[in-house]
Amino acid sequence: MTHPFLDLAPLTAARFAAIERRVAGLLATGQDVVIMQGEALLPLEGCIRGGARPGSTALNVVTGPYGQTFGNWLRDCGAEVVDLAVPFHTAVTAEQVAQALAEHPETDFVSLVHAEAATGNTNPVAEIGEVVRAHGALFMVDAVASVGAEPLLVDAWGVDLCVVGAQKAMGGPAGVSAVSVSERAWERMAANPRAPRQSYLSLLDWKARWIDGGRRALPHAPAQLEMLALDACLDRIETDGLDAVMARHASAAAATRAGATALGGGLGPYVHDARDAAPVATTLRVPADLDATALVGRALAADSSLPLIAGGGALAKEMIRVNHYGVHASRDAVLSSLAALGEVLDGAGRRTDIDAAREAVAETWPNN
Fold first, then answer.
1. How far apart are the first and last CA of the chain?
2. Which of 11, 46, 310, 342 could form a disulfide bond with 292, CB atoms 3.0-4.6 angstroms apart?
3. Which domain holds residue 51?
4. Domain co-membership, 212 together with 249
5. In angstroms, rounded to a whole number, what is the distance separating the alpha carbons of residues 287 and 267?
6. Per-residue pLDDT tens for 15-63?
7. Do 218 and 251 belong together in one domain?
8. What is the spatial distance between Cα 7 and Cα 85, in angstroms, rounded to a whole number?
9. How many domains does the chain have?
């Protein structure tokens, strides 16, 4: 008995390369793009271990938990790390980056998360890229959450290493990820004796065995189902139009923010300024005497399909995250999430106004 998910012809090198070209188009880049066979932490760590080494000075922007992870990896590589940390309810500015670079002129590596889904903020990569390019440092951006939700122009913004994943705004699989690599990033890694080689983390292996060989022979068996799913999600984005996909995410974010404010019950946006809020997810602060994890648990017990999650780590008691990305970048998902939050807040003794929330959503995101 044949099975459509199991009895598949092998994925050819030509098909793999064609998918890479489509990802490059999505990123507006002429740089090399490598699709790596694992979740996005794989290329993120590979980029840092390839680009940083003893003697490097790295400016690591921290606007959420992934920035903290990058700092740990950079230190493990022997780099001198300067953490530029800002409160998680805001975003970093290009001026702050410029000041940090002026104070540490030896900086040769800058790492930044574009959109922090975990904290709900997004950073101005275009403006920061201009500052980093003028300084001459290598620029690495984690765009896993932002790709498909907001503009991402790798070449125009001077990004040397840009990592993306398909599992959020793109609405695709989690098991594959991609990274664009500039020529000077390749040169930096090739000159780094501590860059991973003959390793699953190694970007240099992909260059030597895949790119330099004309993309004719894959270095190992690809994750076939994930690659086909990635191809399918690129089909969907191209059919809908990238601008339309980004507009849906922006509308979902604006409607969630407005609706949560109108809902009341002590709920409010975690990110103070709307211009700093990520279109991929909206984070909400709960009243100090309530527990966000418990509230989310009660909401999900009633409807497990809701795109709600409590904050991670130290934020677990105070933050609720509405993950309006991918298929959940929809008016119905926003309204269902707000209604569920209103119900659990009412149950906790807080007065909410779901009609006002619905009206705010309708004004922010009218039916078309």
1. 46
2. 310
3. 13-239
4. no
5. 7
6. 999 999 999 999 999 999 999 999 999 999 999 999 999 999 999 999 9
7. no
8. 49
9. 2
